[in-house]
Amino acid sequence: MKNKWLLSIKNSLLSIQTYFKEPRTKMVWRRKSSEFMLKLLRTILLFGLCFVILFPTIQQISMALRAPEDVNNPAVVWIPQHFSVENIKIAMVVLDYWKALLNTFKMSFITMILQLLSTSLAGYAFSRLKFRGSNLLFIGVIITIVTPPQALSLAQFLYFRSLNLIGKEFSIYLMSALGMGIRSGIFIFIFRQFFRGLPKELEESAQLDGASVFRTFWNIMLPNARGAIVTVALFAFVWQWNDAYYVAIFDVSTAEFPLLTMQLINAAENVYNALFYTGGLDLIGQNVWENPLFLALISNVAALLMMLPLLIMYIFVQKQFVESIERTGIVG
Amino acid sequence: MANLAQTNLRSISKSKGVQGYKRQKHIWAAIFLAPWVIGFLMFFLIPFVRSFYFSFFELEGTPEGIIKTFVGFHNYYYALNEQVTASTSFRVELLNTTLDAIINIPVLLIFSLFIAVMLNMEFKGRAFVRAIFFIPVILNSAAVTSALGGGDLMATLLEEQGINQIFDLEYYLLQTGMMPWLITFIVGLIDRIYAILSLAGVPILLFLASIQSVPKHLYEAAKIEGATGYEMFWLITLPNVSPHIITVTVYALVDTFLTSSVSQIISEELGYSDKWGQSAAMAWIYVTIIMMILLLMAIIAKAMKIGGSHYEE
Q1: Which residues of chain A from 285 to 324 reach within 8 Å of chain B, CB to CB?
Q2: How far is B92 from A100, CA to CA, in rounded Å?
Q3: How far is B205 from chain A (nearest CA, A)?
Q4: What string of pLDDT tens digits covers the 313 residues of chain B?
Q5: Can you tell me the distance from the alpha carbon of A128 to that of B114, in angstroms, rounded to the nearest whole number?
Q6: Which residue in A237, B206, B226, B302 has the most C-beta neighbors within 10 A?
Q7: Nearest to A265 among B127, B143, B216 (CB)
Q8: pLDDT band at A37 (very low <50, low <70, confident <90, very high)
Q9: Chain B contact set for A72 (CB, 8 A)
Q10: Which of A145, A214, A292 lies at the smallest CB-CB distance from B28?
């Protein structure tokens, strides 16, 4: 009886062994297991990194949702005892949120379009329309990338004052349209590298079909550089949104035309004054606003409010990063 | 359409074919570059030259205007030898930042390319994960930093409550009896993860976009031939992404310097109205150093044939 059992086990083991020894199954199993390991590793790594990024943000969101009276409450660690949107309301008042949001959006959007136009044209010329001296000019682009903005700030301010461009929204648009906006140099660089990567046959076949240089650029090269367009548009928008430097130099943000960054910096530097002048103090009691922690909390909530629209927009935009571009007309 | 093509063809052959196209190209190059050149001359070169000029002067801002006195190279001498802040000096920070940049950039490149490849794979919740990796890009803003910097108080409060650190890694590792130097290394590495991640936000997106623009049919052909993912990465993804490695390197280098204490010192000096000349001199030293590093990298890239497009020539 016992022998029979052993024998059958031995047999089945043997059959499993032969099953695994067969080269085909060996390969299938190896591939499957390596695929699984890859997935596991990827999940662990991405999860860990996401956690590292999210941890401080979640902390702030949890703080943001506390009732103002609970700021010092040591019993509250992660989940607020009294959920409250009071902090958010106050921060909105301090930032003049809706008005500033609209202005910031308008400004970021217009500069994004202008930057896209000027930098894509320049990038295309530097990569595809070469002429004698174009490499020398490109060194100029590199210098604009490398020079820190504050190195020019004084000279720039004096110069812009003499041109009477200070205090005008228009001056920011002018800079972007002329390829001198926020980090325009790096955008030109991105476009140049993308256009360089497109096959020469595209251009040649368009030329044979009789397309002009502009048509080749507009109808054939530009659609093929969609990756560059999406990237540049994204960065142009976000960096304008976050910009506090040019906006401060040109003194663009005013009471009639508030911008999120400047409002945020003012709020961060002196929350009490900001609360006082915007009437935010009336929303809360004295024992709350005398608490320095509460004031710090408000500036944190304000920062969250500034980031939030960008994050929401990005979730919609990131789909653009998904599809690979099918190059028109050319295979291999 | 066909008609239009024909007339265009005729016009091309009329203007001596290829020669005419070349001339057309030059004309369009001038048109395409016009906005940039105007902007460069008007908004960049003039302030740039002026700041160079300032760097040889002792400037003093007064209500009546700026008083200038010529001091020659003294500002440069001051920047390199005399300038000190409470805990450090311009020279020390410049040296540190340069070394940091040279060491960090290769790590950053490999890390961000690796993450970009992973984010390009298909898996559940990809949109969400991509959105999270975008957060550092948004957070990298002076305004947000100053607002969150006001949160030092919050940090101390959180520390009091003991949620600043979920568990003390160093203590835990010591308990396991590991070598102390290894523990310092691991803890240091983990501390740096956030710093690297916050620098890597933009490079990841740049790499992601460049991976996206690799023609799909290359991968399809490779798959039919039985290539593994590993081989496809080395033989297809990497060569196609390599022009963008240059872009990312330039960006990372500039960003490292821009967020370093060197640039902070320059801004601080600019804050004193009698030190504008010194600040300009420092900025010029800073620009020279970055240009030198870039030149070095360009030479290395040329020698190793990275970044050239295989479609050119």
Answers
A1: 292-293, 295-297, 299-300, 302-303, 306-307, 310-311, 314-315, 318-319, 321-324
A2: 41
A3: 7
A4: 445 555 555 554 444 556 777 788 888 888 899 999 998 988 888 888 888 888 888 777 666 666 777 777 888 888 777 776 666 788 888 888 888 788 788 888 888 998 898 888 877 888 788 888 888 887 776 666 666 654 455 555 555 554 444 445 566 666 666 677 777 776 766 666 777 777 888 898 888 888 887 877 888 888 888 887 788 888 888 888 887 888 888 888 888 888 888 887 887 777 776 677 888 888 888 888 888 988 888 888 888 766 554 544 3
A5: 30
A6: B206
A7: B143
A8: confident
A9: 157
A10: A214
Kind and range of the H or E element at B57?
strand B57-62
ipTM metric: 0.79
In a domain, B139, yes or no: yes
Q: What is the largest CA-CA distance in chain A?
A: 106
**CA–CA dist A255, A119 (Å, integer):** 32
CATH 1.20.1070.10 fits A94-321, yes or no: no
From chain A, the residues in CB contact with B281 under 8 A are none
Whether A241 contacts A310, CB under 8 Å: yes
User: A42 in contact with B at a CB cutoff of 8 Å?
Assistant: yes
Mutation target for B interface from A213, A219, A308: give the one with most B CBs within 10 A: A213
Looking at the 3D structure of chain B, how many domains does it have? Answer: 1
Domain segments of chain A: what residues? 2-51, 94-321
Tokens of A172: 């920011």
Instruction: Give the closest of A122, A154, A209 to B33, CB-based.
Output: A122
Burial class of residue A203 (count of CB atoms within 10 Å of its CB; 0-12, 13-18, 19+): buried
Give the number of other CB atoms < 10 A from CB of residue A6: 10
Q: What is the DSSP letter of B89?
A: B
Structure tokens at B128: 């969400």
Instruction: List chain A residues with CB under 8 Å of B292.
Output: none
pTM: 0.81
Residue that has been written with the tokens 């821009």 in this structure: B258
Burial class (CB in 10 A: 0-12, 13-18, 19+), B198: middle
Which residues does chain B have within 8 Å of residue A134's beta carbon, measured at their own beta carbons? Answer: 29
Looking at the DSSP assignment, which residues form a beta bridge with residue B70?
Answer: B57
| Residue B131 in domain | yes
The answer to whether residues A74 and A203 touch, using CB atoms and an 8 Å cutoff, is: no
What is the rounded CA–CA span in Å between residue B153 and residue A292?
8
Q: Which of residues 183-222 of A touch B (CB under 8 A)?
A: 184, 186, 188-190, 193-194, 196-200, 207, 209-214, 217
Task: Answer for the pair A250, A160: CB distance below 8 angstroms, yes or no.
Answer: yes
CB atoms within 10 A of CB A52: 15
Residue B271 lies inside a defined structural domain of this protein: yes
Closest residue in B to A180 (Cα–Cα): B39
CATH number of the domain that residue B230 is part of: 1.10.3720.10
